[in-house]
Design brief:
The chain is of the alpha/beta class and 141 residues long. It has one domain: D-tyrosyl-trna(Tyr) Deacylase, Chain: A. It is built from three helices and five strands. The protein has helices at residues 40-52, 62-65, 95-112; strands at residues 2-15, 18-33, 69-73, 116-118, 125-140. A five-stranded mixed sheet has the order 4-3-2-1-5. A hairpin with a 2-residue loop joins strand 1 (2-15) and strand 2 (18-33). Helix 1 crosses helix 3 (95-112). The longest helix has 18 residues, at 95-112. The protein is globular and about 40 Å long.
Length: 141
Amino acid sequence: MRAVVQRVDGARVEVAGETVGEIVGQGLCVLVGATHDDTPETAARLARKLWTLRVLADERSCSDTGAPLLVVSQFTLYGDARKGRRPTWQAAAPGGTAEPLVDAVCGELRALGAEVATGRFGADMRLTLTNDGPFTVLLEI
């Protein structure tokens, strides 16, 4: 699984003008993509990493501060644009595989005690955030 993790001071995701997920104040906005060989165990490892990643103020983690996470599925993280002018999506897991994995990341985070907001899988979403730093890191599990 791949994740783009941004330290934020608030983030919101909308679908058709309706807010479906939002975090207020300092937290993490996480774009998550799955590939064909990812498993529920991979999703659990990613969740544990996100929960304990020390990227908030004073090198603290969400587990230290109780900071919320906004998790949004993003199959385009597995886009490949090395050849030609149009990306291919062959490495991205199909929706039937990816959706349960993204849900598993969120479920594991919640089981760890995290406050988790989400987007809506497969929807045309509008994501608004204030990147704090700016700070962005890529994770590959």
